[in-house]
Amino acid sequence: MLGGILLIFILFLISQILFSEMARKHKFFDKSKMNYLFFYHFFFAGVYYTYALYNNSDSKLYFWRPQLSNESWFSFYGTSTTFIDFLSYPFINFFGFSYEMMMAIYAWMGYLGFVYAYLFFRKNIPIKIKVFKGVDLLTLILFLPNMHFWTASLGKGAPIFMGLMMFAYAIGEPKKRWGILLIGSLITYYIRPHVFLFIAVGTVLGYFTGKEKIAFWKKAMVFIVMTGSLVIMQDSILGIAGLQDSENLVEGFENFSEDRANALSSSGSGVDMVNYPLPLKLFTFWFRPLFFDAPGFLGLIVSVENLIYLFLFFKILKKDFIKFLKKSPISVKMSLTTFFLASLAMAFVMSNLGIIMRQKSMVMYFLFFVIYYYLAQKKYVSMMIRKRKLEMLKKKRQDEIAVAYSIE
């Protein structure tokens, strides 16, 4: 326990060094808010740790598995669960990290995900947006409790969230941030290869359809790099669903998703989504559990957050949203494509509300980004119209004064 507390203090000091560098590059960077976020996130790390002490938790398995094996470090090298063991192995076996220290280091990874999410939002959207009668939208998004709970422990949730947000932040200026982009890409691929597929497709689509004027050779380079990466990694990606040797990928995925959904629906918080129509599958993945089907006390807390998601989603159900999408930049189209493809894939295989609560924390920030950008764009247009009206009114008054002065 003492080692974990000491490590949190050290990680806080390391964070200050990182913040100084980030503040040097971005004048908008708010160290104070990030420090509040640090303590907020580690509060949920403490909540999860307490929960894990009295309940079954994958974090315990992730801690013991690298120790119980007599195999070498690189025998764990691989994708999915194996990669978490590979990542944890040196901390546990070389540096002697305790369970509490491993929980702390992974919670810090999750926290860095929120820091990069903050950079991703603020770098692309300088306008502040208020929702729900005066609540700052970015602050609301950054402090959603369910997001912190599932990214504050030893497991896949924290590093995959960090990898995705690093990728989202870096892809805006890949030449300047290639190191962050590479790290984010590798983390995402090794933990969840299929999610890397989604962000790769989203990036290619964004670069080819975004409103920015980008040289053809740059678009071609993005297409070649992303397509080449997918070709190289196709066995790992398809292997997640056991489809690497399948002759019919569509039929193979349908069989896999049905088997997976049936298996998950048999658990205590399962829902029979197999026969749901697609819109209801997506609604379940995005917004359930709600109060009527919340699995336990934690489910009730999550229901409040899901209701916030729902209210935010309603804000883009407008006639001008499609028009906005057509003219939107790379970041918006990449985010929406990634969010929708990931949602579509997981909605077919997830039939357990507990797992849904955890899995969707990976991709909901992409939806939040689209909502935020849409609202900021509307506010910007409104500000420009108001500014023009004021300028016209000011000019009219000046003309009237000039006329009156000439008459005198």
Produce the secondary structure layout:
Elements: H1 2-25, H2 31-54, H3 58-68, H4 81-94, H5 99-124, E1 130-131, E2 135-136, H6 137-142, H7 145-149, H8 157-170, H9 178-191, H10 193-209, H11 216-239, H12 249-265, H13 278-287, H14 296-314, H15 321-326, H16 330-349, H17 353-359, H18 364-407
Antiparallel strand pairs: 1-2
Could you characterize what this model shows?
This protein is mainly α and 408 residues long. It folds into two domains: 1-165, no CATH class; 192-383, no CATH class. It contains 18 helices and two strands. It has helices spanning 2-25, 31-54, 58-68, 81-94, 99-124, 137-142, 145-149, 157-170, 178-191, 193-209, 216-239, 249-265, 278-287, 296-314, 321-326, 330-349, 353-359, 364-407, and strands at 130-131, 135-136. It has a two-stranded antiparallel ribbon with strand order 1-2. The chain is globular and about 95 Å long. The termini are far apart. 38% of the residues are buried. The model is unreliable at 236-270 (pLDDT under 50).
DSSP strand content: under 5%
DSSP helix fraction: over 70%
Q: What is the succession of H and E elements?
A: HHHHHEEHHHHHHHHHHHHH
Widest beta sheet: strand line-up: 1-2
Counted beta strands: 2
Q: Number of domains in the coordinates?
A: 2
**Between the first and last Cα atoms, what is the distance in angstroms?**
86 Å
Structural class by sheet pairing and helices: mainly alpha
SS summary, helix count: 18
The main β sheet shows up as: 2 strands, antiparallel
The pLDDT mean sits at: 81
Quick one: overall form?
A: globular
